[in-house]
Structures are given as structure tokens and as C-alpha cells.
Amino acid sequence: MLISFGCPVSGAWAQPETLTMIARQAEELGYHGLWAFQRLLVGRGQDLAPVYHSVLDPIVALTWAAAATSRIRLGVSVINLPYVSPAYLAKQVGSLDRLSGGRFDLGLGTGWSETEFVATGSDPSPRGPRTEEYLDALKVLFSGEESEFAGRFYRVPPSRMLPAPAQAGGPPVLLGGTADAALRRAGRIAAGWVSGSRTTLPEIARGVRIVREAAEEAGRDPDSLRVVVRGVVQAGRRDETVPLSGDWAQIRAGAERYAEAGATELFYEPNWDPRIGGLDADPRVATELGAEVLAGLAPHH
Asked: Whole-model pTM above 0.85?
């Protein structure tokens, strides 16, 4: 199982110098990748966790991280596809992939915040057909050739988008979601599945099984699919219900349980710790704690 890290995009430690430092140190320490996430805004009276109250745009943050590094992969888990047209997203992520030398992984979801749907003038329904069509449109746009696409929700007139991404066919697309239909879709048409922050260990194991079965039924090699897990870390405080909590040894033991469940990549996610990703946390303390987690869980230790 590959070990990656959640980069500073939320709350107190989401500062330019911290993002540069964490990205460079993660690369030096041998982490496989850096992961960001998307949250546009918080509605009045919307009861959301501290991590969601102040969040950098993931594409901009990962471009910043790309400029500070040369080898580490860069991923987003996830961009909510209803919010933005396939053409606009393809231009953004194709540019990031080109500028980073082909290091980008694209996680896509359909969103859950009604406030954000209203603010972006978007509608996620019907989620399945919309997602499948979105991926088909991206393939056309990533091809680098003149092509077109006509679907129920999205259209691309005969056109060509350049520069093409550095990775042939575009960045790998992973899909989020925990419903059976979403898991089967990931196994059937995507490069893999990426889990959410609240996905439990038993749900990961179940998700892996459904994703792999769907891949096999679609005539794909289930072993080729990726399962990327967002592992929320609670450093220094053990909670038996949180696998990645406690001291470094306890957290590493928890990580092994995700590997046994079938995860191919785990990224330690410090943004969900209010001491780090909370808006009201002390920036200096948040940065020190984030760097401590980075060093304490480095893959080559």
C-alpha cells in the first residue's frame, strides 16, 4: 500500500509558505502523493465540521505544490463535477498535469452541499448518467485530437483542446461515493475508487469487494484498479473507533488494517484535526503539529 499525505488546504495551516514546506518535505520523506479536497463555501446556519470553513481551491493549491516539487504525485479527492463544465475542468487539470510533468490524479464526486448546488447553478441528478457522460466528455477533451461529444447533459462541439495533458489520455480518474451504484460505477469505468472522510474500515472492505466485482464483470482486471483511502489522523489521542489515532505505532498499525481491507493507497489526512485544519487554530501551532505528523508517519521510517 502506498502512503501519501493530505496537503495544507484547510484552516490555520493553509498558508503559502506552509504548503511549500510540507510539499517539499513530503517529497524528501518518500511520500507517494499529496492530496487536496474541494469545498466552495459554507451556508448560513449550515452545520459543517471545522475542516470545511476555510478551504483553498484544490487545483490552485496543487499547482502551487507542483511548482515546489518534482516527483511526488498530486491528487484531488474530490472535485464535484456538477459544479463545473467538463471543458473548463479539462483545461484546468490538463494544464496542471502538463506543468507538473504528468503527476496529477483526478478524483470526482457529485457533491452533497445544497448551498453549493445553488451557488453554482448546478444539479447533481441523475448522478449515475451525469457522471458517466462527464467522463466520456473528458476523454474527448483530453485526447489532443479534434473530436466532439454530444450527450444528454454535456456537449463538446467539434474542437481540439491543447496542450494535451502529459499523461496519455489524461490524468487517471477515480470516483468517490459509497452507494452500491457509485462503487460499481468506479469499478466499471474509472481508474479506481477514492473514499470519503467518514468511510469506516468495514465500509472500505465492502467497497473494495464491490468495486473489484464490478471491474471483473466489465471484463477489466480488478488488480489494476486503485483504492485510495482518506485516512483521518488523530495524533496523540487514542480512540478505538478511529483506526488512525494514538501514537505513531498505533496509527501505523491502523494503516495496516486498511491495507488488509484492500486499499492500494492511504493518505494520512491532518486537515480534519481541528488543531490543524480549524479556522480558529493558532497558525504556528497548527503548522508545527502538521509537520510533526508528516515526519512521524513518513513511509520509510
From this structure: yes
43, 105, 32: which is closest to 71 by C-alpha? Answer: 32
Here the cell at position 33 is 502523493
Greatest C-alpha distance within the chain: 56
What is the number of helices (H) and of strands (E) in the chain? Answer: 10, 12
Residues 210, 183: contact at Cβ < 8 Å? yes
Q: Mean pLDDT per segment of 10 residues, for the chain of length 301 residues?
A: 98 97 98 98 95 97 98 98 98 98 98 96 96 98 96 97 97 96 97 93 96 97 97 94 95 97 97 95 97 95 53
Which residues does 187 contact at the CB level (< 8 Å), separation at least 6?
193, 210, 211, 212, 213, 214, 215, 218, 220, 222, 225
E strands within 69-152? 73-80, 104-109, 147-150
pLDDT at 170: 98
pLDDT value for 279? 93
Give the whole-angstrom CA distance, residue 209 versus residue 258.
13
- Residue 227: is the preceding peptide bond cis (ω within 30°)? no
How many residues are there in the chain?
301
Cα torsion angle, 46, 49, 50, 53, sign: negative
Return the sign of the alpha-carbon dihedral for residues 142, 99, 62, 293.
positive
Among residues 136, 258, 127, the alpha carbon closest in space to that of 200 is found at 258
The answer for residues whose C-beta is within 8 angstroms of residue 188's C-beta and 6 or more apart is 214, 215, 217, 218, 220
Please give the radius of gyration of the chain, using alpha carbons only, rounded to the nearest integer: 19
